[in-house]
Amino acid sequence: MPLPTPRTRIQKKNIQTIMDAALGVFSQNGFRGATLDQIASEAGLSKPNLLYYFPSKVAIHRALIAELMTTWLDPLREMDAQGDPIEEILAYVLRKLEMAREFPRESRLFANEIVQGAPNIMDQIEGELKTLVDEKAKVITAWISQGKLAPVDPYHLIFSIWATTQHYADFDAQIQGILPDKGTARFEEAATFLNHMYRAMLRPQIASAAH
Amino acid sequence: MPLPTPRTRIQKKNIQTIMDAALGVFSQNGFRGATLDQIASEAGLSKPNLLYYFPSKVAIHRALIAELMTTWLDPLREMDAQGDPIEEILAYVLRKLEMAREFPRESRLFANEIVQGAPNIMDQIEGELKTLVDEKAKVITAWISQGKLAPVDPYHLIFSIWATTQHYADFDAQIQGILPDKGTARFEEAATFLNHMYRAMLRPQIASAAH
DNA sequence: CGTGTTCCTGACCAATTGGTCAAACCTGAG
DNA sequence: CTCAGGTTTGACCAATTGGTCAGGAACACG
């Protein structure tokens, strides 16, 4: 029985190994496309051994998603209403881009889940996530009404940030197929590009002609 | 044997029915996650009947991808080097957004394929697609050197357009979970937002102070 | 009508799948 | 060393999967 909290160091190690292997397999094949044998093989364990630590395939997936959800939203949480609006948003963009580079598997796991209709995490999207987004949207709206940002829809602004940053993880195969160079330069180029893009669109226009 | 070109009207109709059903199933579950039984059931045909028209599961998938690739790139092809740069790019953005609204299943089919490493279409990405993108990147670069656009990396500009527009199809579940309204307003809002975003970032800055 | 071709199906198959289980194997505290 | 607990595995199972096949049903066309 998989104990709620890992007790022994063996449990800790194996659970970690399994989740790491499962992350790779689920993120590449989606839930239905992934097999326990694949995960077991990737983890260097036997299939019954997997099922000693997790009661079922979905349990592994759920554990992964749960772990991911807690850390995935941190960059957005860090956006500070007290800071300089444009710099705060740009910092958020760059943090998200950094996560796309650092944790592409996590990004793809998420992408797979959402593309398939988010069957397992819709409640968290409509709860935790929506709450956070609503809160930050209010912050952005306040910034706009203070004239510190160009007037844009805060929700779609956030969507565009998710889209443009996660794209570099989720669609990496396509990007690497198109971009001439094959190094990691694409992420640095992306940082420059997104920096320009969001600065340009968020810069408040010259104050209204009337004064 | 599935004849290369559909002959009878029955073939035409059934092949169409199958591909439509397969599009739905593949786009929601990915290739490995989709089953022939599911597709057959969705199409209202028996499984052996599917395999009368297509020799295998991958054949159906290949047919879908092939059909998609031909039309999916049309919006980009239409970008005209002779037109007004900003308007041309914006028209492209809106066409892509329109496709995300009109053909979300096609978008998700594509997304699934790329997220999983584009195993079946990497050659087309590195061939047809790359050629087209290279060509259009040159056009954009020319526009920039004529001072008609702000200087941005043309490749990443195109990536950002793909990301922001397809996001509304691929991640629709998330968007609908977050946005207050549930109608189709999100697409109109997106059009407004993207219009602002790309105009702001592409507008050439005031000519260099020196004159 | 008749008859050759196209279309369709139930029954079947081997391989793979998620999952079980009893028995064997470790491991660490006393 | 011991032995009770945690850990691991080979063998197994029922269900599902992609795919086959022989034959029947529907059609086209003279």
UniProtKB/TrEMBL annotation, chains A, B:
Q: Domain of life here?
A: Bacteria
The HTH tetR-type domain covers 12-72
Q: Which residues bind DNA?
A: 35-54
Question: What keyword terms does UniProt attach to this protein?
Answer: DNA-binding
Q: Is this entry keyworded DNA-binding?
A: yes
Q: Name one Pfam family in it.
A: TetR_N
* Species annotation: Aquimixticola soesokkakensis
**Which is a GO BP term held by this UniProt record?**
negative regulation of DNA-templated transcription
Q: What is this protein called?
A: HTH-type transcriptional regulator RutR
Which molecular-function annotation in GO is an example for this chain? DNA-binding transcription factor activity
Q: Which PANTHER family does this entry report, sorted A to Z?
A: HTH-TYPE TRANSCRIPTIONAL REGULATOR RUTR (PTHR30055)
Gene3D superfamilies, per the entry: Homeodomain-like (1.10.10.60), Tetracycline Repressor, domain 2 (1.10.357.10)
